[in-house]
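Write out this protein's structure.
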Amino acid sequence: MQTCSRCNSSSPDTALNCLNCQAELSEFSVTTVTLKKFRANPRVTAVRINVDNDACPLCYESRGTFAKDVVPQLPHEGCSHTHGCRCTYEPILSEIYP
């Protein structure tokens, strides 16, 4: 499931627009907005994709740490989990405090 950053509604992974407010999810999903913020933050050196223990094979294979500019987009196209892609981004920081 994708969550809209504008209205906080859930839509299926395959939806292009939010079912509630019609926002374009390729730009306004929570995961897309999160990745944009990580890429803009100079303290984030890389991004890790975390997966649940019961992830589908596609999601399980995509887990790992990536350079900020080559992180795969979530949700994974082709995820076969019954609840959709539940992978998350996690920042890898160069420093924790300013």
